[in-house]
Amino acid sequence: MSELLSNKELANKTVVDFLKKKEKTKTKFYFNDLCKLFPDDKPRQIKKIINVMVTDEILEYWSSGSTTMYGLKGAGKQAAAEGEK
Amino acid sequence: MAFISSGYNPDKPMEDRITDIGPRKYDEFYPSVIAKNKGKWSHHEILEAGVIVHVAESGDEVYTVRVGGCRLMTTTHLEEICQIADKHCDGHVRFTTRNNVEFMVDSKDKVEPLKNDLASRIFSGGSQKFPIGGTGAGITNIVHTQGWIHCHTPATDASGTVKATMDEVFEDFQSMRLPAKLRISMACCLNMCGAVHCSDIAILGYHRKPPMLDHEYLDKICEIPLAIKACPTAAIRPAKTKLADGTEVKTVAVKNERCMFCGNCYTMCPSMPLADTEGDGIVLMAGGKVSNRISHPKFSKVVVAFIPNDMPRWPSMTDAIKKMINAYSNGANKYERLGDWAERIGWEKFFEVCELDFSHHLIDDFRQQAYMSWRQSTQFKF
Amino acid sequence: MAKHKTPLLDQLESGPWPSFVSDLKHQAEVRAKNEEGIEFQIPQDCVEDLLGVLELSYKHGRTHWKHGGIVGVFGYGGGVIGRYCDQPALFPGVEHFHTMRVSQPAGKYYTTEYLRNIMKLWDLRGSGVTNMHGSTGDIILLGTTTPQLEEIFYELTHNLNQDLGGSGSNLRTPADCLGSSRCEYACYDSQALCHFLTNEYQDELHRPAFPYKFKFKFDACPNGCVASIARSDMSFIGTWKDDIQIDQDAVNKYVENDSAYPSNAGAHKNRDWGPFDIQKEVINLCPTGCMSFENKQLTIDNANCTRCMHCINTMPRALKPGKEKGCSILCGAKAPILDGAQMGSLLVPFVEVNPDNDYQAITEVIENIWDWWMEEGNNRERLGELIMRQGFQRLLEVTGIKAAPQHVQYPRTNPYIFWKEEEVPGGWERDVEEYRKHHLR
Known about the structure:
The complex is a heterotrimer. By secondary structure, chain B is of the alpha+beta class. Chain B is about 25% helix and about 20% strand. Chain B contains twelve helices and twelve strands. In chain C, the strands form four sheets. Chain C has a five-stranded antiparallel sheet. Chain C has a five-stranded mixed sheet with strand order 7-8-9-14-15. In chain C, strands 10-13 form a two-stranded antiparallel ribbon. The radius of gyration of chain C is 28 Å and the shape is globular.
């Protein structure tokens, strides 16, 4: 595991900064997009860290039914449009 | 109604949380004769349509009575299944991959009472609750998808087309007179969440119009980059347009000739609906199989390019299906699947004997595999 | 008295096949009467509204559902599909009407006790409408509201020892045939393998990190009753290596048309096809022509048998699969979208199915494939499409499997082999000056 990924605080910041930067145009990303933030790590390791960010309520999933995406919790237009939040 | 808590605390979602436990273990649910003879079965025989006996090396027997079930099933109906299973089968029941229900008993004398009980149960509207059949060289239940009852991209209904078809081919559900088994499958759009592409006969819902664009709301409700990315053929690009009142809004533009009508954009963006009364309908495919028996597994081929939705019973669709089944039943050799028969007589003869029209839509023009389906030979039948 | 008139759906109540409309109407009545005094947690009349919105679709020829991005319960990225009605004012009972996928037991055997527990939970907290089962294999609970999702999950896990199934970019709930539990053709215990892998890969099933969906299906013999070769990214099909077991006495019973030995296990009983003729119906139909029957003796040239099952299916009391059993693994099946349909392509011709070492030989193949697909797969690219894009040779490379003629129908018809530098003696770096000593410019 790279130094970046093994440092929880730094890893979280990297993901959050990336998502915040993109927030104006897009709030949901494929897992692959997040993997690019950790070029020195294997997807299965990155997955573990990303999923902890979901249980820590930093990120949340969004699903098209066939594909799942990640975004900052509560971000995006869909949540409001679906009348759930 | 008062809210009843399960014990879950929304403020502490991780408290006492149980996860990753998977399904229940299969052998908790085995009837005793199954548990005892698992892996030690000697042979089986279909005694009559819908009734199978399996004989174990120990001499034990299990009699299975198979009945057609609706994939869409309520707890009221399930309760009735449970009552039958309690009365005849020691509280055990099984479902098949093709939405049939199997009641198993461990001796022959228990079969008739079970059959009589099943056959006596009729819905108030007149249909049978538990028709016995679906075995051997006949037509078993149709596997299908969700349709209008619960999906956002269907081009037709699933439960309704299946009911209409099964009513028409019902005789072959309860008999075994065909040359081989005949499997019908149904998927209500081209995404095929129920893969129907290897069925003897496949019913497929199909859209024919690209999405509409709700420009005024599109950028308010949807994330434009996601809608663009959702398109498998890259037909969507960002655009700007002026509304009637003169305001300029961000939206998308669709290259209509590239659209394959999958509805993936609608999934991501509710401002791009594509359902349409005239545009939507049914494609019929035929000649596929998954078994390795005699010939290799093979894909179904498109034999009817489009049939309009004709609710509630889709008579043109069931008519075309019946024509194919009749021609197959009359023409095929014993053990020959529909696709093997069509290949033996030639597809040009298939259209003739099934009385189906051939049109340019049936000639493949989609990517590389199209060439493989054209005729590179002077051997053909007039 | 029904809440909505349904003249079109009413026409689907007649005819012999079970009517889902009658079933739904009955359910609506049962909920309206509520003789059991259930404190319904979602609208009592939701099934009435479900019939109403379906009738409207029959009238319009268009769906009235919208997709929702809600994915599951806390920490899970699958198992729930969000649905919203696009006519909520007309049908408030189904305004929010989400689906939950419940992981089915392998083989789909049930006790009524278990089913009743699920039903009780679903009547209280949902519509009471189900799919038994969905296309992938799960028990589908059709129609509940967002606040109920966690409550249902809590009850499932705490009271029923039962988890949700998969959706989205996850491992989807694996599904199998009933295998050796009730079938003499089974070449391995499909339920044991299905259950083991489902549990082994719970994290992959609940927490999405794949480029797209991924399916396992298990057929215990080449008859393929769960259609794994057409419907799963990895298909495990039972097979054997040694000789078909023959009981010559039983073969002759079939030949003599003994009534206790009906051909094809009785599957053709309702038409008179004439007496069973072993030459015509078995020997001549064998795809490899590897059988003969002379002097009351059936002979099989097993080295040329491709295990299609036809002779075994036709004379099940006389022939059985061999004793050295295992499975073949095929990869890449998918429905046509996007690049056309694919069936599974043979990757592992034979592998032992050994529970004693936790199916090590199988999990190794799976994990090698996942590592490759997760690193190289494009977003929404199924395994079959990645194999097409990067080549079957690459699949062999990442799984460390040696190429064999079994992998192809026939060898390539073009010579455009992309030789790698290390495959060519001396490599690609050459001295042009040395060349020019013998070849003038």
